[in-house]
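[agent] plan:
  1. take the single chain provided in the ticket
  2. run structure prediction with default settings
  3. attach structure tokens to the ticket
  4. add a short note for the reviewer (M.T.)
[agent] executing step 1
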Amino acid sequence: MDHENFEDALSLERFGRYLAWAGGDRGQAIALYGLNTRLSESLYTPLQTLEVALRNRIHTVLAEAKGGDWYRDAAGVLLVPHQSEQVAKAIQELAQAGKPITPGGVVASLTFSFWTTMFNKDYETLWQQTLHRIAAPNAPKGLKRKSFSGALTPIRVLRNRIAHHEPIIGWNLSKHHAKIMELIDWLSPSANKWCCENDRFPLVYPRDGIVLAQLPDQVELQPESSVQMGLDATAALAET
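[agent] step 2 finished; step 3 output follows
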């Protein structure tokens, strides 16, 4: 199928990137776009599992230590202004929708960015005193706040790129997928088991890697032997 006028639906700018990565081959460009879509779809399950497990573990631990409404200003837990703003917005939207304002409802309404912020340097004391308890008994001993923050930052960017339908085929997806699964296991072995049973990424990601004729823009190069670039079979995998 030649998918006539497909470029019009995507915009020439968006399709042009895939065309460059395909070395000018229109059919291959469409195939790469399809692969990008399938990979984005396949990562939904592990990303969803991580986000839900992360927010619920944080809420459970902080509720036990600070009370169920630990996210309110009076509790003194939140140290970053935009987090308090997100809480206020979540409560306002629940009220406008006529829904009960419960801890569970507020927690479910907060963004992934809110939860990843709980691991920045402002929360080092909270981590040492309380937040470290989010780790499951099987998690490696001696996990630090940075064990989560260092991994969650690129995962959050990847999640947002998928949510905004941006290209991800230039990323080291196998590495990020493995890290997502590792974090889930640290939080909940049960959630990890469920995710493994429903995870399609290993089936979708090409066994021989992804062949691109040109490196994607706005990327940081890191060594990766599993991906072959059309211009250089030993080139690095592009990663944001």
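[agent] step 4 note for reviewer: The first helix runs from residue 6 to 10.
[agent] ticket updated
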